[in-house]
Design a protein that fits this description.
The protein is α/β, with parallel strands linked by helices and 292 residues long. The protein has 9 helices and 16 strands.
């Protein structure tokens, strides 16, 4: 059992949990993830990238968006509650070395798992530039943390309510065309964002690493649920990744596979919100807005 030490709500659907996990905190490296299971017997396992950790204090930080039933249930937990099991650290760590200038691009909640990668590149002696994107100001996260460690931070929002109005690919292209182009780029966020970040850097020959968050079940590569095609070869995100060369990923195939459970996720998302609203108004039978 892993005790929840702290909880923050960044927006209506995005939550931060700081959880006691001493062994994982001591052994994790930038870019790795964990599988979280709320129930001891029949609970679904969900992959969450480690957003931060403290080896001395024995905790890891997780940031997630409520999408399906499990993430909604996780969001209902509070400090003092426990999570049944956290498996990790899993996946291959980010390959960190001194390369010169690195541009790190985060979209939405992808900014959170990008944070330890930014810290690791900076600690290795690199100049690190961060580009953060969100739909609107209220969805921008980890800005203060990024500004504390990065050499330069650019924020863009779709509606222009914070930072520049536009997409992350615009300042990324500017960086590639600058007098000091990056030696490497890292992108974490929605698949379509990572796809276009890779397309942006490719003409300039900038090596681009992306972190994939596909459907996962066991975290060992045995189930095959997380398989992707990279460079024409089948790879498993949980054991071969989660990071890959963004120029080699078959993005269209990956996004098609990720839609497999979309109808069920949307149904669970709606049902969970109805149940929470029913609880809020004191209707334990969940009949808000009509019969179940």
């Amino acid at each position: 059992m892993h005790k929840i030490l702290e909880k923050k709500q960044f927006s209506e659907e995005v939550f931060y949990l700081r959880v006691a996990a001493p062994e994982i905190a001591r052994n994790r490296k930038a870019g790795q993830f964990v599988l979280v299971q709320i129930d001891t017997e029949f609970g679904e396992r969900i992959p969450l990238t480690i957003a931060d950790a403290d080896a001395a204090e024995g905790w890891i930080a997780l940031v997630f968006q409520t999408v399906g039933a499990t993430t909604h249930r996780l969001a209902l937990k509070n400090p003092g509650d426990s999570v049944a099991a956290i498996l990790g650290p899993l996946g291959r760590p980010t390959h960190i070395e001194k390369v010169g200038t690195v541009v790190c691009v985060g979209g939405g909640i992808g900014v959170a798992p990008l944070y330890p990668i930014v810290k690791a590149y900076k600690a290795a002696g690199n100049t690190v530039k961060v580009i953060m994107g969100a739909r609107t100001k209220d969805l921008v996260i980890f800005e203060r943390e990024m500004r504390a460690v990065a050499d330069e931070v650019t924020v863009v929002t779709d509606d222009g309510t914070h930072g520049r109005k536009g997409l992350v690919t615009e300042p990324l292209k500017e960086a590639c065309e600058s007098a000091t182009p990056p030696a490497e780029a890292v992108a974490i966020g929605p698949p379509v964002m990572m796809k276009f970040c890779a397309a942006t850097t490719k003409p300039y020959g900038v090596h681009t690493v992306v972190s994939l968050n596909t459907i996962m079940i066991d975290g060992t590569g045995m189930c095959g649920g997380c398989r992707v095609t990279v460079g024409g070869k089948t790879k498993f995100v949980c054991v071969d990744g989660p990071e890959f060369d963004g120029h080699l990923v078959d993005w269209d195939n990956m996004m098609m596979r990720m839609k497999a459970y979309k109808p069920r996720e949307e149904e669970a998302h709606h049902r969970c919100h109805m149940e929470m609203e029913a609880e809020r108004v004191g209707d334990p039978d969940g009949k808000v807005g009509g019969e179940k």
